[in-house]
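hi! just following up on the protien thing from before. the input was this:
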Amino acid sequence: MSAMHRQRVTRSDGRAVNIVQRRAHLSYCFNGCCCGRTDRGYAEAPAEVYKEEWLRRKMRNNVHLTKAGCLGPCVLANVASLVFDGRSVWFHSVNSPWVVRQIFEYIETMLKADRYLPPPEELIEHVFNFYDWDARPAVPALAPAANVIQNAQGIALLTHADTDLLTLQTARASLPDGIDVVGYSLNALRNEDQMQALIDGSLSGSRIIVLRLHGPVTSVAGFPILRTMCLERDKFLVVASGTGELIPEFLQASNVEPDVIASVTAYLGNGGAGNLIECFKFLSDRFLLTGHGHVPPSVQQEHGVYLPEMEHAEYADWLRQADPQKPTAAVLFYRAHLLSGNTAFVNALADALESRGLNALCVFTSSLKTLQDGIPAVLRLIQGRANVIVATLSFAMGNVNTGDVTIAGDNVSVLEQLGLPIIQAIPSGMSRGTWEISRRGLNALDTAINVALPEFDGRLISVPVSFKERASTDSGDLYIPHEERIDRVAGIAASLARLQRLPNRDKRLAFVLTNSSSKAAQVGNAVGLDTPASLLNLLRAMKGRSYSIGELPDSSDALIHDLLSRGSYDDAHPLDVERVHRYSRSAYNRQFVKYPETARKKMMDFWGSPAEYGYTLRTSRSKTDKKILGALASQIAVTDSEPWTDQEDYWFAAMSVNNALVALQPPRGYGLNPDAIYHTPDLPPTHHYAAFYQWLSTPVAEGGWGADAIVHVGKHGTLEWLPGKSVGLSSECFPDLLLQNLPLIYPFIINDPGEGSQAKRRARCYRGPFDASDDACGDLRSARGSKPTRQ
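and the predicted 3d structure came back as:
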């Protein structure tokens, strides 16, 4: 950190004073026309946290802190402005203490580096530029470091795999004297300035620099600078693949012999603290002419059963402690987590599954691409032993043809043989705080490797179960479990396992039809799909497979006429009060009070506060109306009653056919043009809408219908368009909140991937036309009946 500087200033009264010159100035808006003005519908500003962090980190002599009035545009409230070394950084939406702490972490990092650095990933979504300085001439390039350590003898490990750094922390105590190793996460490196700071700092004492990459050398910001430095200063540069191959580009980028790269790749690929220690001893002996001695890489078991209390467990060990009367959920995770001791999230998943009444069979693997007789070797440990799979593995099992059509390959037939639903649980590479405040949810990298690519295998996309929390760039990131999200995955797994084991005659399925524009004439409409005919085909096929269905009409016209004779949410064809399905307000309120506070508040602010008895009415003008609806806010019709209810119950348009229910999806709102609000991203659902999904999942004994699964039929509905994150949902996101743990099957035309992916990723449903590519859903086929007929 740079020395403190002072300036002698003569005041206007002639007195000379010394002032301490600050390195930075942080100003934050807390009570202007928008920031912190909760009375105007804006978020509360965490004003006190700024001072707490400023004092706690003892920044008084380096950073001046100003509690300000209006700083920037109201649409970006709450706003903060930082000036550091003459560079300005603006932050918007600073609505939580976590963001404030990340700002101070950023400042502290720059103070330690003694230079300006671009904002870290955790703050990227909060950064904007209120000035036009980007159009001005660029800042002159940084001068190279004046001091270069002579006779540097250390080793540096720069890696994309944070498990390497966790393994390094374990290995340090056993490294022989004379081998000094520094580690650095390449995930934290984003620009050339950071690379230069790394070269001048941590790498200055290293003679051997090892890069382990998950991607090309161009994925390393400032790699040309690093390579040039190694050549000029006689340092050894080893570039190895994180996936085990000898890549020609890496051989060319290195300045050592190919056999060295092959050996390092083998040591790191086999993993474990022992191999890492031997790798460093090998490099030290080879290039620094030490005499530590080393042994070849020790081959580790690629796939196996994991028990926290037992090393080198076998399936027989797991079987002895499993309950044969319970269903089993297999948990797949990477071997690298086991070798680095990064298994807290796996243990938490296992505990949650067991608390839901399942056996948890945890299995590690190096890759799904390692085959045995044409089948991924790890699946041999699962086949015939599990009822559902929870996969935490990234990427796709099959090959993806980037930029062109990906044809269903061996992965489809393999998963068909397995015959099990596969839930994709997401170990996110983000920090929890970044995810919590992000409207997008998962970042682009997480979405690609943990959502989009696994979809090619037919996995059911669920939610994040852990987040990377970085202690420092040289210690690796631990996957810290998110207990509540883990419980959601466990609940979904338990529901799917129950559905698989439940006899068809006892399964209760709710078919929810789209109700576009809330018009009776458009119930179940869809492009290229005759919804009533498809529904009737499904019901007939289910009846033929011993589902308890009852008498069915002779034609699809008769089916839809019978349904609509009970009324709809169309004012021109109102509900028949004598034939509606009902759900009591008291039952709804018992669950509503358990909703997350943020979700409850959004619903109450817009639609009013529900009571045990009586209508729930909107206030005349909510402060959030204009923010949510824009110009539509002025068009809200004021009502003196709550539609589709009476003072005791919510009413639903539906008909039962024994253990099958056919229901209309309720409108998203009332008093508004239903077409205009169909896709509105910020409009919370009405209490009537929430009560409908609550009624479907609530057991019959508690006043609900007691569905075991929902089948959505028709064009896309509104559930997947409710407020919340785009992907990687939290408990406050309404699709997750309303579905709870209920499985959702969603027939959808395959040539509309945009709207279909919205449903798949936000409603964690199985989506697609029912053909040979849906094999990952296994016994869900017995729930859906036969293929819908597209007319």
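The longest helix spans residues 483-501.
The chain is about 30% helix and 20% strand.
cheers
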